[in-house]
Amino acid sequence: MREPAVAGRFYTGSETELSKQVSNYLNKAFIESLPGKPVAIISPHAGYQYSGAVAAYGYNAIKDYEYKRVIVLAPSHYSRYRGASILDVEYYKTPLGLIKVDVGICNNLINNPPYFATFKKAHAREHSLETQLPFLQMVLGDFELIPVLVGRLNNEEFNFLAEKIKPFIDEDTLIVVSSDFTHYGYGYSYVPFKKDVEANIRKLDYGAFERILALDFEGFMRYKQATGITACGFMPVALLMKLLPDDVQGKILQYDTSGSLMGDFSSSVSYVSIIFTKNSKSSEAIDHNFGLDNNERLTLLKVARDTLESYVKERKLPDINSGKYELTRIMKEKRGVFVTLNKNGNLRGCIGHILPKVQLFTAVMENTISSSTKDTRFRPVTEDELSEIGIDISVLSPIKKVSGADKFIPGEHGIIIRLGGMGAVFLPQVATEQGWDREETLCHLCNKAGLPAYAWKDENMKFFVFTAEVFHEKKVLVAN
Fold it and tell me: 248 — phi, psi (to 5°)?
């Protein structure tokens, strides 16, 4: 039996209090509808007072599904070794009771040296795997555990571990990857910036999330090399990308930082809940259902217009809580969104978030400001131009990886390409506005990415598509 090592420190050691603590987090975690059954989650592993609220989002999302086994992939904080370590025990214990280990599968994996082994010291004090267990006990009840501590891996070792684990993944199996993300501050020997720390940490984290959601293993590895991002579960997350099929859909459920919670960004650790689901529909299907009604569109356009006018004139934001705006549930959801400014029929600025970073109304405000002042293709918008500028808003669906360029439908899909660290995006309306067919759109997109026009034919090119609900100031029905 593996006894709990951090009960009473990372979470309460009392069965009654722990049950209450986890239930409280779960009850506060609002989950939007999912497109299919969850197959994997990425969950943080700090003390529950820091990361428990974020972790609850992933676990709340799986509570209505049944799984016979759970594979937990977690990093080792205290030991350095190559490959993966599985402890030779029959049970893991928490204050909530015993969890049975799937000894048959674990023994099968351990019998693949040198990349699978048992390093007992690695498990003695480790919290990254243990902190996931009370949440699993509360939402799943009875299941069997396959607990894996992942060490350092090279490409050959990633492929070997994935090849050996994949046969044990089926519709009754959930994968949980334990990882915190950016560890910022002198205490972590990671201070890549000293100004706008909160915004830059978010930007750094979301750069990693974008590659994770796209299952872009090579891009994720390059991102680590380029940024040095201090994600302690980097290896388990990268291994997950080797395990998941291309037809899963990833989604960020919740994000926070200890810096935000404590009001001090001199030292900060980032936490995220990400879920991957397998859609019962065709693997190439894209979600077109956004659910915004006409009044919600009008409100978002009003938020954008008021933000543009107020910021350009006074460098102020409108008071979103003044009662002037009716903020519905959908408008408070996190969505990817672009704001486009046009002047006399010509582009005057366009900036947005592909990934859902903040609540929709906040994203509209932020991107209105960015489009009017930070689009480097144009000078900042001036007050005397305001009456000539029209606003378009594009609310995006989740991005979806597709098997090839032939799956991209110009005019219906937005398109993202990635090759060798280069990438670019077009919104769905670009092809229609320019009168381009599929090949022309892809050639222009390659040029935008700094690639040769026909690089889209490269066998290593990756394609991602999305749809967008696009609405304009003068093309929305007037509210009654």
Answer: -85, 160
Query: What is the Cα–Cα distance from 336 to 429, expressed in whole angstroms?
Result: 16
Distance CA 357, CA 444 (A): 28
Cβ neighbours of residue 447 under 8 Å, at least 6 residues apart? Answer: 453
- Bridge pairing between strands 389-396 and 336-343: antiparallel
Examine the fold and report which residue of 249, 279, 309 is the final residue of a domain before the chain moves on: 279
Helices then strands, each counted (H, E), the chain: 14, 19
- Asked if 276 contacts 58 with a C-beta cutoff of 8 angstroms, the reply is no
CA distance 477 to 480: 9
Residue with tokens 């693949």: 112
Biggest CA pair distance of the chain: 73
DSSP structure class, residue 68: S
Two structure tokens written together for 299: 């409100």
Decide: helix, strand or coil at residue 454: coil
| The pLDDT value given to residue 479 | 36
| Alpha helix ranges (H) inside 329-476 | 360-373, 428-434, 438-448
| C-alpha distances out from residue 341 to 305, 306, 372, Å | 10, 14, 7
CA separation (Å) from 134 to 17, 137, 470? 12, 5, 43
Give pLDDT, residue 186.
Answer: 97
Write out pLDDT tens, residues 95-109: 999 999 999 999 999
Domain holding 422, by residue range, is: 285-480
In a domain, 5, yes or no: no
256 & 307 share domain: no
Q: Give me the residues paired with residue 252 across strands.
A: 274
User: What is the helix (H) or strand (E) element at residue 66, kind and residue range?
Assistant: none
Q: How many domains in the chain? A: 2
**Domain shared by 263 and 298, yes or no:** no
The helix-helix angle for 360-373 and 294-314 (nearest 10°) equals: 40
Low-confidence ranges of the chain (pLDDT < 70): 279-291, 475-480
Q: From CA 248, how far away is CA 93, in angstroms rounded?
A: 32
Which pair of tokens denotes residue 352?
Answer: 């947005």
